[in-house]
Design goal:
Largest sheet: 9 strands, mixed
Helix content: 25-40%
Structural class: alpha+beta
Strand content: 35-45%
Distance between the termini: 88 Å
Length: 220
């Protein structure tokens, strides 16, 4: 075998490696530019406008969002969420929430939830005056409920869905809960809550958490 024949396989491998590196570099550049676009004023205007219009048209209520973007860490962040109920009263106002979502596990159907959730500033008003009209957020359930009511057989042999709830960090949480049906009228305030949820098993009702810290909180 002459020298030219020996070099030919090496040349092919080198060219293949270069193509692969170019594809990877192209993907990284595309993702970087996509994140920059999402965070830009123009990108925010398009994304927020579409989300607000979609939710508002589905619910028939006022919806406002300041920012909705992907952080450079790959987390999903939502700032300045405002949502009214059907009477025009404030249902939810959220200052800032950032979620680290196990996207690959969700795509593969292995798990659903969050690896980490940081929530700073939440005000929610939950009311129920009677059992007929239900809670004041019932319109959200009705708006996004599937229109197809066909009964689907449930596969009881499949493994239960794994729920992931990782690191939780809540600050400045204020929730009003008034349920006239069961006679509960409470207000929960959380100054700061930090916990690591190690196990969440809905089937066996098993919940294991560690490093729990709660401060400046009360229930009235």
């Amino acid at each position: 075998m002459d020298t030219a024949e020996k070099k030919e396989p090496k040349t092919r491998n080198y060219l293949s490696l270069r193509r692969i590196l170019r594809v990877l570099l192209g993907v990284l550049i595309f993702l970087f530019l996509a994140i920059l676009f999402v965070r830009s004023p123009q990108g925010q205007s398009i994304i927020v406008g579409k989300v607000v219009n979609y939710v508002s048209s589905k619910t028939g209520t006022k919806v406002a969002i300041d920012k909705l973007f992907i952080t450079f860490d790959g987390d999903l962040q939502l700032d300045g969420l405002y949502l009214e109920d059907t009477k025009g009263d404030t249902l939810v106002y959220s200052n800032s929430v950032e979620a680290n979502i196990p996207l690959w596990k969700m795509i593969r159907g292995e798990a659903v939830g969050v690896d980490a959730l940081d929530w700073n500033g939440l005000r929610a008003n939950i009311f129920r005056k009677d059992s007929i009209s239900g809670y004041n957020f019932q319109f959200l359930v009705d708006a996004f409920a599937p229109s197809d009511t066909t009964t689907v057989a449930i596969d009881t042999t499949s493994a239960p869905l794994h729920i992931v709830i990782g690191h939780l960090n809540f600050q400045n949480i204020d929730i009003v809960f008034d349920d006239a049906v069961v006679g509960i009228d409470s207000r929960f305030k959380i100054g700061e809550f930090d916990a690591v949820i190690e196990t969440t098993n809905i089937e066996e009702m098993t919940f294991i958490a560690s490093n729990i810290a709660l401060s400046n909180s009360n229930d009235s």
